[in-house]
């Protein structure tokens, strides 16, 4: 069983319960859950791979604008399964190509896209540790 890090982003915070219901319906187990407001410093650290990009300041402003929900999800092939369930990065694209995806249902555009999912096993471990430093790795 694999683990991944899921975020419900600020634009979808009022839909967090609805999104969790979808997550459970798709067979994921929620191992950990926290609702937090990121500081700009924490957010810059989390998204450090995007530092220097044109959209970075606006991404940090968005991600610190309201609470987020961070969850550790477990399932067979969880990393890919969760990315499939959230859909393409740009919610406008998601609405066209993956209308049942979380980004299509709850997001708005390329930035306000409702959810995040780790993109690899290495990212998943880093991101889980980022939000849940005490979460035990098997
Ligand atoms: P990954 O998990 O591979 O990092 P992702 O779908 O989260 O993929 P990234 O390209 O990593 O997307 O970008 C991180 C976040 O930054 C996106 O989820 C989105 O909120 C925001 N973002 C990405 N591209 C843009 C853009 N061109 N303009 C504004 N915001 C963007």
* Tally of discrete structural domains: 1
Radius of gyration in whole Å, from Cα? 14 Å
Mean pLDDT: 97
Please, how many helices?
A: 7
Question: Secondary structure elements and their pairing?
Answer:
Elements: E1 2-8, H1 16-25, E2 29-36, H2 40-46, H3 56-63, E3 68-75, H4 78-86, H5 91-97, H6 102-106, E4 115-117, H7 121-131
Antiparallel strand pairs: 1-3, 1-4, 2-3
Give your account of this protein's structure.
- There is one protein chain.
- By secondary structure, this protein is α+β, with helices and mostly antiparallel strands.
- The protein has a single domain, classed as 2-Layer Sandwich (Alpha-Beta Plaits).
- It is built from seven helices and four strands; from the N terminus they run βαβααβαααβα.
- Strands 2-3-1-4 form a four-stranded antiparallel sheet.
- The protein is globular and about 35 Å long.
- The mean pLDDT is 97.
- Adenosine-5'-triphosphate (ATP) binds next to strand 4.
Features:
138 residues, alpha+beta, Alpha-Beta Plaits, 4 strands, 41% helix, 19% strand
Short description:
This protein has one domain: 2-Layer Sandwich (Alpha-Beta Plaits). It is built from seven helices and four strands. It has helices at residues 16-25, 40-46, 56-63, 78-86, 91-97, 102-106, 121-131; strands spanning 2-8, 29-36, 68-75, 115-117.
């Amino acid at each position: 069983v694999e683990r991944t890090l899921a975020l419900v982003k600020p634009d979808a915070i009022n839909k967090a319960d609805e999104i969790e219901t979808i997550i459970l319906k798709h067979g994921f187990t929620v191992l950990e859950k926290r609702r937090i407001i990121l500081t700009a410093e924490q957010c810059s650290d989390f998204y450090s791979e995007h530092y220097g990009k044109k959209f970075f300041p606006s991404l940090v402003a968005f991600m610190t604008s309201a609470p987020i929900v961070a969850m550790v999800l477990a399932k067979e092939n969880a990393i890919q399964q969760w990315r499939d369930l959230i859909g393409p990065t740009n919610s406008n694209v998601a609405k066209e190509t993956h209308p049942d995806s979380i980004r299509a249902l709850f997001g708005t555009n390329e930035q306000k896209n409702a959810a995040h999912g780790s993109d690899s096993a290495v990212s998943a471990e880093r991101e889980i540790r980022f939000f849940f430093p005490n979460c035990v790795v098997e």
